[in-house]
Design brief:
about 80% helix, mainly alpha
């Protein structure tokens, strides 16, 4: 009999979260920066320089932030696994009882739970406790480098949208066009993220466009006020 293989959407959660966060931040932060500088009356050269600087700084910040935060998660996982390994070596019977209780709590008959726990611990004691007690699995385990790389690349991809708009749009229409184009990019991003995650797209699209519009409107307003004052 051929084994039945299933592909679940939750397997994407690690890279999908970092990708959506990176691209969203790339569009919103870079577009907001460009609109703020443009609204102040700055020339196109200054607008483009600020946009490129925001892209580079943002990509590095996202990569560093993801790497540090996910590395902290990985450190915690390693510490828990080391503690579990020591407990298995020191008191295997207590760990067997603990695993049995976990299976019983999930609805397995006590005798069956004990039998299954013994078999699972004989096969892979640490892996079983990591999965069933600590909830550390191949799907959820922390991957700092993957998260950092994904965030940096997707931030850069997102930031290129407002940067290209700033280079191509007429200066007089830059603020309005930048806002409209970036909101369209955010809407597309929300739709892609929802489809990739198996969710209905309208709510993620509205959510990402609302917060993006708010950030860009506030930044543009501040830039106009500063430009007028200066």
């Amino acid at each position: 009999m051929r084994p039945h293989r299933e592909s679940h959407l939750v397997a994407r959660i690690g890279w999908l979260r970092a990708a959506v966060l990176g691209a969203n931040d790339g569009i919103v932060s870079t577009a907001s920066l460009i609109m703020g500088v443009a609204a102040s009356g700055a020339p196109r050269s200054a607008i483009l320089v600020s946009g490129v600087a925001g892209l580079v700084a943002g990509a590095m910040s996202m990569a560093a932030g993801e790497y540090v935060s996910v590395s902290s998660q990985a450190d915690t996982e390693r510490s828990d696994l080391a503690r579990e390994r020591a407990e298995l070596a020191a008191s295997p019977e207590a760990e067997l009882e603990e695993l049995t209780a976990i299976y019983v709590a999930r609805g397995v008959e006590p005798e069956t739970a004990l039998h299954v726990a013994r078999q699972m611990m004989a096969h892979d004691a640490l892996g079983t406790h990591a999965r069933d007690e600590l909830h550390i699995t191949e799907t959820t385990t922390a991957r700092p480098i993957t998260a950092a790389f994904t965030s940096a690349v997707t931030f850069t991809a997102g930031a290129l949208v407002p940067l290209i708009l700033a280079a191509l749009l007429p200066l007089g229409l830059l603020v309005v066009g930048e806002g409209a184009g970036s909101l369209a990019g955010l809407g597309l991003l929300g739709w892609i993220g929802a489809v990739a995650g198996g969710a209905k797209p309208w709510r993620p699209v509205v959510r990402v466009m609302f917060w993006g519009a708010l950030a860009m409107a506030l930044t543009a307003g501040i830039g106009r006020l500063v430009g007028t004052a200066v």
